[in-house]
Structures
1.
Amino acid sequence: MNQEIYLVGLNHKTAGVDIRERFALSDCDPVATGLVGDTGAVSEAMILSTCNRVEFLVVGDSDADIRARVLRFWADHCGQPQGDLENHTYCHTGDRAVDHLFTVAASLDSMILGEPQILGQLKTAYRNAVEKGAAKVIVNRLLHKAFSVAKRVRTETAIASSAVSISYAAVELARKIFSDLTNHRALLIGAGEMAELAATHLLSAGVRDITVVNRTLARAEELARQFNGRPMPFEDLHQALLETDIVISSTGSPTAIIRAKDMKEVLRQRRNRPIFFIDIAVPRDIDPDINVLDNVYLYDIDDLKEVVEENLAGRQQEAGKARGIVAEEVGAFMRWRDGLALQPTIVALLDQGERIARKELRKSIKQLGPDPDPQMVAVLERLAKSLCHKIYHEPISYLKRRSQEEGSAQRFIHNARRMFNLDEETVPEEAHLDRKGGGQ
C-alpha cells in the first residue's frame, strides 16, 4: 500500500462563518472514531480546528479516495449534510499538502498575515494527535518541520514585527467607531487566549475600565488581575452589559449566549445608550438577531476583514521572503519523505560508509610517506571498502527484514536515517514536544 500525504479542509477564504461554525471540531479523536486504523486506508491524522479554519492532515492509501472518506467522517461527526460541506473544501496532496501546512504554520494563510496565534494552535492540534495515537512517523516529522519553518520565518523576516491578531483587529475596529477609547468601558466575555490578547490591545488603545465575565470565575479573576480589571461571574452578565460600551466575546460555547430577547431589557435599562459588540467566537456567541435592535452594533469575525486588509500592505514584501523559505523547506521535507523507501536508504547508508572510509584512508596513506607503494594503496582501498560493507551488512539486513512487516517499514527506516544522520539535519529543540507531550 503506497502512502500519500493529504490535507483536506476549509478556511475563511472558502467558507463564511455560518459554515465554519457548523463544521467546527473540538476534541475529535480520529482513532477512537475510526478515521485512523492500522489496517484502514488512513494510517495517520491530525485535526486543526480554529475560528478561521478546520483542516485534516492525513497520511493514507494513495489508491483510496481519501478526500471522500474525510468529508464523510467530518460531516457525520458534526451531524451535518455532507453536501453542505463539499463545495467549501479544498484537498491538497503530496508536496502541495506540505506546502499548505508550512504556509499555515508560518502564518502566511491567516486572515491577519503574520499573526502568532496559529503556531500555538498547531502545537495544540499536534499534541492532541500524539496523545490519541494518531500521529506517527510522517505526521511527527512533518509537524516538527512545520515548527522549524515557522521559526525560520519569524527570525529571518520581519513579517511578525508588529503584534497583530484577530483580537487586535477587533480593538482597531472599536477605535475607528469610538475614535477615543479612553472614556469607554470594555467587557470581555470569555477568558481564554483571545480575550487576553484583546485586553492587552484595549489597554494599549487607552481603555482603563475592563470587566471580565467567564463561566469559571477563577479564570475571570486571574485575567482581570493581570490587567487591573474587574471579574464578574457569568450569572451577572446582564448587569455587566448595563455598564459597558464595548463587548468583545470569545467563549467556547456551542450556542449563542446573547440574543435579541436578552438585549431588549438591557437596552431599556441603559436608556438606549449605544453598545458595540465584536463577536470573535466560532461558533458565534452573539446571535445575529440583535442587529434588528436600535443602538446595537454587532460585528462578527468576518466583518474584521476590512481592518485586516489595512494591516497587510506593510507585510507583503516580507511575505515574499517567507514563501521562499517555505518552498525551500518543502523541497527538503519531500526529499526526506522519498528517502523513506528502503532502497534509497540502503544506498545512502553505503554511500555514507564509503565516504567515511575514503576520508580515513586518505589520512592513513599520508602516513606512508610522500611516495607510497601503489600496490599497498590498492590493498588498503579494498580493505576499507570491505570493512564498510561488512559493518553495514547487519543494519541493512535488519532493515530488509523489518520492511516486510505490515505497517513497520517507515518507522524502522525513519529511525535508521536518524540514527546514522543520513539527512544531515537537526530539528530545533523547540520543535519537539516536552516529556509530558505538551507544546512549548
Note: Strands lie at 3-11, 42-49, 53-61, 90-93, 185-189, 209-214, 230-233, 246-249, 275-279, 296-300.
2.
Amino acid sequence: METIWEQVKVAIKERIPRHKYRMWIDPVEFKEMKEGGIVLSCPNSLIKKRVQNAYGSLIESELARISGKACSLLLEISEREKKRKKPEKIPEPDPQLSLPNVDIPKSAGRILRRDFTFDSFVVAENNDFAYSAARCLAEQNDPNQSSLLLLSETGMGKSHLSQAIGHHILSKFPLDKVYYVTAEDFMNEMVHALQNHSIEHFKEKFRKQCDVLLLEDVHFLTGKERTQMELALALDYLLDAEKKIIFTSCYAPAEIPKLNDQLKSRLSNGLISGIEPPDFRTRIKILQKKATEKRIKIPKSVTEYLASELMENIRQLEGGLIGVSAKASLLGKRIDVRLAEGVVRNIVQQKTTITIDTIKEVVSIHYNITVKEMTSRSRKKAIVWPRQMAIHLSRKYTDQPLQFIGKSFNRYHATVLHSIAAVEKGLKGDAVVRKQMAYLCKKLESGKF
C-alpha cells in the first residue's frame, strides 16, 4: 500500500501547483492500513488540517482510481511530533532584539503583534502562494530559500505574514535571534549610531547578531544612498551566513526610484510573492474570522453587505466590522444592514466625487497658490510641499494608477513615489503636517469644495 501512496502523490503533483504540493502533500507519509482505509502521517496539526480540508477528497479519489477500490482516508500527527519535547528555556541570548531607542520588555510577543500568526491568516487564491512561501521559510524546510519579498498594496496582509514568520520561528527555534524593524527604523538607528560614534556596534548587530531579519517597507529607502549601502552590506553578511530575511514592500524592486543596483539585486535575488486584493468570497471569510476572534455576533446579511461595499483592503473590512459593532453597542441597537449602511458611508469617503482636479483646487486654496503653479516645474518649497500633499491625497482618494497621477501633475512615476513617501514621513513625525492633512481630508470628505 505504501507503493500505491507514492503513486497517488505523483498523480496529485500533476494536478495541483508545485508550491502547494511541496508545502502540503510531499511531507505526508504512509503509516498503515486499517479497516479498509489508509492511515497517513502528517508532520504537524496545521498540515493535517489543511490536507484534510483542501485535499481529502482528491486523495480519496486518486486512491480509489489507482488501487481499484474505495479507500477511506485517516490522517494522524506523526509520533515524532507528539514525542518532541520543547527545549529547556535558556535566559540568554534574548531571541528577539529590541527596537532602537525603545524600552520594551524582553518578550517577542511585545514587539510582534500577538494576533499576526499563521493560524489567524485567512488563506485564499489571492494570497495562497505568499502564504505557502512564508510557511516554507518559517519551517526552514528548504535550505535554498533564505529570503522572501512580500509585495502588496497597503492593508493586504503582508505585515501579517511577515510577523507570522517571526512568531513561528521563535516558537520552533527559540534560540534564533529575530529582529523585526521597518526600513525607517533601520535608517534612524544607523543615523543615531553615526552621530554617537557607535557605527561598529550597529554593523555588528545586523551582520553577526541576527538570525532572522524582518524588514518592513523597503520602498521607504528611495533616495537614501548611505542607508541603502549599509543595508546591502548587512544583507550580504546575512545571506552568506545562511540567515533568513523577509522583506515587505508596496512596490517591486525595479519600481522603487533611486534604489542602487546592489540593493536592488539583493531584494530581487530571493523569492518574490505578491498578494492580490481579496475577492468577495475571501472578504466574507475574513469578516467571519475577525468576528469570531473579536466575539462579535453579526448576521449573514450584514457580513455580505460589508463584503460587497468595502473592497479596498483588509484594514477597511476590519474597520467596518468594528464600526458596526461599536455603533450597535453605543446606540443599544441590534446589528442590521440599515445600521451598517451608516457606518459604510463614513468609511467609503465618496471616492467617485473626489477627483484629482478637486484635490488640486482644495490644496491650492489652502496653501494660497494657483493650480498652474502646482503643476509647474517650480522647485520652490512653497510649491513643492503643496504639490506633494496633493499627490498623496490623489493616491488616497482616487483609484487612478500612479502613472496617471504623475501625468496630472506633470511629473514622472518616480517623483510620485517620492512625494508619497515624503508626506508619509511627515505624518509620522510632524504634528503640523498631521493637522494640515486632517483639515484637507475633512474638507474633501465634506463635499463642500
Note: The first helix runs from residue 2 to 13.
3.
Amino acid sequence: MADDKRLTSGRARRAIKMGGLASQVGSSYLWNSLRKPFLSRDAQTKALLDTHIKNARLIVESSNELRGAFLKLIQMLSTRADILPAEALQVLSVTQAGVPAMDYATISEQMRRELGRKPEQLFAGFEREAFAAASLGQVHRATLRGGERVAVKIQYPGVEQTVEQDLKNLKLLLTTLKAIARDLMRQKIDVRTIYTELEQRLREELDYQREAANMKAFADLLADDPEVMIPRVFPELSSRRVLTMTYLEGYSLTDVFAPVVDPGLKSWVARKYFSLIWRQILELGVLHTDPHPGNYLVTHHPRLGILDFGSIRRFPEPIRKANLKLARALLAGDDRAMAQALVALGYLDRNQPAAPMIEIVRILFEPVLVNRRFDPKKYESVAKAATVGELAVQHRLYKSPAHSVFLIRTLIGAEGIVRQLGVVANYHALFRQCVEKVED
C-alpha cells in the first residue's frame, strides 16, 4: 500500500484499479484457454490451478490497497470453499489477519467529529497505535477515568463514500469469479445473490449504533451461558462511527489453530464453537453471520469471546422452527419430514420432487450423520461442493431464499474454523445434543 495510509478514493481512480484487476484476471484465463489444446490433461489441470493462485494473489494485493468494500468482499470469499479451490483460499485467507492501520491524527479527528472531543479529553489513557485494523475501521485500547480497560472501534473517515463507489465496480470481479466456479468447480454461482449479500452486510456494518444494539441482544440471549463472553457497550462514548466496549483479553482463534496448542484446549474450542452455532440457529433464531477467526478469541478460563456484531441475522419464528424440523428429520432419516421442512424453508416448491434436494442435504451434513469420531480435515469440501453443484444443475435446484444466504455462509465459515482446529470428535453426538436440547 502507498506510504500515505489513506483510503484510495475517487470513483474514477477506484474504477481504474478495479477494471485493471478484472482485465488482468480475465486475460490470464484467456491465455490459459489458448494453451489448453497443447497440454496434456494433467498439465491442463495444473495450469488452471496455477492461474487461480496467481489471480488470488492479485486480488489480495488490490484488497490491501483499496480496503473498504472490496477488502470486505475478499474476506467473505476467503471462507467460501464452495466457490474456490483450497489452494486459492489459502492465498485469500491472509486478508483475515487485518490491514495496516491509519495514522493517529486521522483517527483522532474522526473521534472529535463523532463525540465532540479528542481521545485525550475523553479517556484517562488512549493508545495511539491500533491493535487491530480491518477493512472498515480499526480498534484502539483505552482506559476509562474509572480505570476500566476498553476497546474503541473507529470507522475510517470517508469509508461510506468508498463503499458506494466499490459496490458499483465489484460486479467486474464477481463475473470473473463466476467463471472460476463454472470452469473448475462445475458450479453455477448466483452473482446477484452474492452482490446483494455484500451490499446488505456493508450497510449494516457501517452503523455502529446498530452493532451496539446487536451486542446487547446477544448478551441477553446468552446470559445463561457462563462459557461465552460478550463485550459491554458504553453508550456515552459511542456513536454511529465510534463504538466503545469492554476490552476482552485472550488468544485469537487464529493462535489456537497452531499445532503447538494444547489438544485439550483445541477440543474445548471446537465443541463450544460448534454447539454455539447450532444453538443460535435452532433455539435462538438469531445468528452471528461473520464467522472469520478474527471475530473470536479464547480467554484463559477458558471462555469463548465474540468481538464483532456488525453482521447479525434474525430469523422469523416459522423459519427457525422449519430449520429445527429439518435437523430432527435429518437425524431420524425421515425423508417425508425433510421434504416438508425444505418446502417450508423455500428450497423446494410444493410440487417439486424432493429426493435430489434431500441427497444434497445429506452430502452437506455428512460430518454430523456418521455416528463415530470424525476428522473434519477429511471432509473434501471442494469435491462435495462440485457434486452438489452438479446435482443442482441436473435437477434445476436454483432456489435461494433470502434467509439462506447468511445461514449458508455461516455454516461454510464454521466448517472452515472446525477444519482448521482439526479436532477429531463425534460431531454426530454433538449435533444430536444441540437438537435435543431445543424445546418446541
Note: The first strand starts at residue 125 and ends at 126.
